[in-house]
Specification:
Structural class: mainly beta
Helix content: under 10%
Largest sheet: 22 strands, antiparallel, barrel
Number of domains: 2
Number of strands: 46
CATH superfamily of the largest domain: TonB-dependent receptor, beta-barrel domain
Strand content: over 45%
Shape: globular
Radius of gyration: 29 Å
CATH architecture of the largest domain: Beta Barrel
């Protein structure tokens, strides 16, 4: 009998229609074992689909490292969304994007396996890639997936482009939905967070089965409220020079274009007289500059509300062939709140608001208009229909079609119509000398509402044949061959006034693009000996907009003893350039940079961070990046109660698709270093920055390697219940980014912890269950920490012996007590971050912490009830 401590990596992993392999009639693998009498006995293990492979295999430790999050794990986690569940994984090494108020992708949640980025992590639903988010144009949005529909989640921490195509460089997450479920279930829950962001969730699921068909259907809803900067006790006041200051007019010598220049000081001050006395406005000690505290009403996280419906079923047409379908429908609403519009308004010499005696700009904060509000409403669906079965005992197949579409409508309120504002400034109808005195009629003339429509659509045709070729000493040699064809459309359309640059307080511009992609692949399993298996895979992808890529992979599994398995794999992969990166129209962005010349021109210390005018531009000739991955590991069932797995991984990415930020453009230009030709900067006559053009380009490589450790124990105490423990840890040895100008090691620097670990402890006794999970993130220094007389880096404070919140691991505790009632009910009470641990403080972030790695919710108490029928 298979040990109950068989590693999670080897649990059944069904890739439904997606893996395109309906091998239900394949002969079973036979495993020899010693019977109690010493005679050889034969036990049969059913072949099933495993994440990372197109070929079904037996329930044994495989050649690839796979971690499974079961339905039971989900229920005791206290999480309400797939995003919350996965972003706490140790494989999300350096954190990932979470819903952020003020971001153009405010309702998006991503996953970054191995710290390689959302765009290099592939999310699957039942083995087929999840829809691409229209908010980003690349990657998949975890907030669009209903947790109530999930049976289990499998994390393949190994590159898999040879199996699934582009973007699987960092790894693959396969979300398997419920199928073999009958009866009914209703769940409701409520969560209260210490620092805002309360949650609500509810779901209902129904499963029915007949002689020839099965159907699972359900609905769910989840919500999390806004959090504000003022909710956080560690939050500090914000200070933006977008308040009420005069700027010089700079003129481009080549184009004659007029743009804002350096600060214009009159009698030692650039402050608009009388214009810095309103609420949240203040001047520096010298009275030379006006500042605005943007933190008073600004939200940190966006609110999220999702409503989902899902349907999954299959019907046996004949003894050998069945029809299957999967449908997911999602509605998502989000709200963001951020500070009033900052904008530069031209005022000619001699006009009522210009007291300088020369043409100027007013760097103005339209506080009288009130905060900006952005609402995003997303509607999406994903439908798959297919046919699977067997032609004979040795030949099976599958064919299917799939279509998904996501639309997002975004509306923004309290923005500024720049041409109207300039007219009212020029005439004096808008009084910049006393902004709070302006009438509502004048303010309404300036106000404008923004609109943005986003879309990502994919149509797909797929098919596969699988063959049992011949018998080897270790079992049947199987081959799978298949093909896929996909069409993609992407649109991100801004309203005409925003696209024309006439809206203040908004950034971005339209992008439209499409592509077709075709692929052919094959995978061949060769079980040479009992316990020795070789897996070969090859895939060729062809894209209409940049070219093609071929990805091979070879995996080896060797099981010299029943309790010991060794495994190794080598693979190559690629990441396709995103449609926005290839097609983005020039988009304005107010980027914060460090530029001594600009700071000095503004009359500030040269180390001061400055907000400048930038444009983010497209890169039509962007090429794909390629990768090589290698892993080797072992799994050992040491005793009946102890199991250990250890895997080493190494990934190299070449021809990196790199974002050349405004800061990078500034630094490279100053040093005379390489920049893609479409990225450059323009300076004013006084040396200050006028405009910076930032965007993507191909350059250099990324190298990372490390270890994954899993330790599982299990103890049966009889009437005192059963105790299970599971340690999952990831140690990153190196994360190095190189270019022709050298390399940088990021591990141990800000935002790049060396390790992450979780320890799950579960005790079941009778109808009660207690779960205690410890989450730990290794020490990572913050950028800057306010300490007595100034801001210092955490590394400096540690060196000087004033570590404070800058040293040691970040540890939180999640607990849950659950009771299974005799009426098939389940009551759960619990807390995440029970000790109310505050995030590691970092003054470089507006919210005071790195929101990729941490959250500011504090202790979150929750109560949930589940009723089965």
């Amino acid at each position: 009998m298979t040990s109950i401590l068989r590693p999670v990596h080897g649990r059944p992993a069904r890739l439904a229609a997606a893996v395109a392999l309906a091998l239900t009639a394949l002969p079973s693998t036979q495993v020899l074992a010693q019977s109690a009498t010493g005679d050889e006995a034969v036990s049969t293990l059913d072949r099933i689909e495993v994440t990372g492979s197109r070929i079904k295999r037996a329930d044994i430790e495989g050649s690839l490292p796979i971690v499974v999050i079961s339905r039971d794990d989900i229920e005791v986690s206290g999480k309400t969304t797939v995003a919350d569940l996965l972003q706490g994984s140790t494989f999300n090494s350096f954190g990932s994007f979470t819903p952020s108020s003020g971001s153009s992708a405010q309702s998006f949640s991503g996953l970054s396996l191995r710290g390689l980025g959302t765009a290099r992590t592939l999310i699957l639903i039942d083995g087929r890639r999840a829809p691409t988010s229209p908010l980003t144009g690349e990657g998949q949005d975890l907030n669009s997936l209903p947790l109530a529909a999930v049976e289990r989640i499998e994390i393949l921490s190994d590159g898999a482009s040879a199996i699934y195509g582009a973007d699987a460089i960092g790894g693959v997450v396969n979300i398997i939905t419920r199928r073999d479920f009958t009866g009914g279930e209703i769940n409701v829950g409520y969560g209260d967070s210490h620092y805002g962001g309360d949650t609500n969730d509810a779901s209902a699921i129904l499963g029915i089965a007949g002689e020839r068909g099965r159907l699972v259907a359900g609905v769910s809803t989840t919500s999390r409220g806004l959090t504000y900067l003022t909710d956080y006790p560690w939050s500090e006041s914000g200070a933006s020079t977008y308040s009420n200051n005069y700027l010089r007019v700079a003129t481009n010598a080549e184009t004659g274009e007029r743009t804002p220049g350096s600060y214009l000081y009159t009698d030692g001050s650039a402050v608009v007289p009388g214009g810095c006395g309103g609420s949240n406005f203040f001047t520096n000690a010298a009275g030379s500059l006006c500042y605005y505290d943007f933190s008073t009403a600004m939200a940190d996280t966006a609110s999220i509300e999702t409503r989902n419906a899902f349907f999954r079923g299959d019907y046996d047409l004949t003894e050998n062939w069945s029809l299957f379908f999967n449908t997911y429908i999602n509605k998502k609403n989000s709200k963001g709140v951020y500070a009033p519009v900052p904008e530069n308004i031209f005022v000619a010499a001699g006009t009522p608001n210009n007291l300088t005696g020369e043409d100027a700009y007013i760097k103005h904060r339209f506080a009288a208009l009130g905060n900006r509000y952005t609402y995003q409403n997303e509607d999406s669906h994903d439908v798959t229909l297919g046919l699977q079965g067997r032609f004979s005992d040795r030949i099976g197949g599958e064919i299917g079609i799939r279509s998904n579409l996501a639309r997002v409508n975004e509306t923004g309120y309290n923005y500024v119509n720049i041409p109207v504002a300039e007219q009212l400034f020029a005439s004096g109808e808008y009084n910049a000398l006393d902004p709070e005195s302006n009438s509502e009629d004048v303010l309404n003339q300036i106000r404008t509402t923004t609109g943005r429509k986003m879309l990502y659509r994919q149509n797909e045709l797929f098919g596969q044949l699988d063959f049992d070729l011949f018998e080897l000493a270790g079992g049947t040699s199987a081959l799978a061959i298949g093909a896929e064809y996909r069409e993609e459309w992407y649109e991100d359309i801004y309203d005409q006034q925003s696209a024309a640059g006439n809206v203040g307080g908004s950034s971005g511009n339209s992008a439209v693009g499409s592509r077709t992609q075709s692929a052919a692949y094959a995978e061949w399993v060769l079980p040479f000996l009992p316990g020795l298996e070789l897996d070969l895979a090859l895939r060729h992808d062809d894209y209409s907009d940049f070219g093609s890529s071929t990805s091979p992979k070879v995996s080896l599994r060797w099981q010299p003893l029943d309790a010991l398995t060794f495994r190794a794999s080598y693979g190559e992969g690629f990441r396709a350039p995103s449609l926005p990166a290839l097609n983005q129209q020039d988009a304005f962005s107010a980027d914060t940079v460090s530029d001594p010349a600009t700071a000095l021109a503004y009359g500030l210390p040269e180390s001061t961070a400055i907000q400048i005018n930038a444009y983010h531009v497209a890169t039509p000739d962007l090429q794909p990046e390629t990768s090589r991955q290698f892993s080797v590991g072992a799994s050992w069932d040491a005793t009946d109660w102890l199991n250990l797995t250890l895997d080493w991984y190494s990934t190299r990415i070449d021809n990196q698709i790199k974002w050349f930020s405004s800061q990078t453009v500034i630094s490279r230009t100053a040093n005379g270093q390489y920049l893609p030709e479409h990225l450059y900067l323009v300076r004013n006559d006084d040396g200050s920055l006028q405009t910076v053009y930032a965007g993507y380009g191909n350059e250099g490589q990324v190298d990372t390697d490390g270890l994954d450790l899993a330790v599982r124990t299990q103890f049966d105490f009889g009437r005192w219940g059963r105790l299970q423990n599971r340690l999952q840890a990831n140690w990153v040895h190196s994360y190095e980014i190189s270019s022709q100008y050298g390399s940088d090691e990021y591990i141990g620097s800000d935002g790049y912890p060396e390790w992450r670990a979780t320890l799950d402890n579960r005790w079941d006794i009778g109808d009660f269950s207690v779960n205690w999970k410890i989450n730990a993130i290794g020490y990572e220094p913050a950028y800057y920490v306010a300490y007595y007389d100034g801001d210092y880096s955490c590394s400096e404070l540690v060196e000087w012996g004033y570590a404070g919140r800058c040293s040691g691991a970040y540890v939180t505790h999640d607990v849950q007590l659950s009771y299974r009632a005799p009426w098939q009910g389940r009551i759960s009470i619990g807390a995440t971050n029970l000790t109310d641990r505050k995030p590691v403080y970092d003054a470089a972030y507006t919210e005071g912490f790195n929101d990729y790695l941490y959250n500011g919710y504090g202790r979150q108490l929750y109560l949930r009830y589940s009723q089965s029928f």
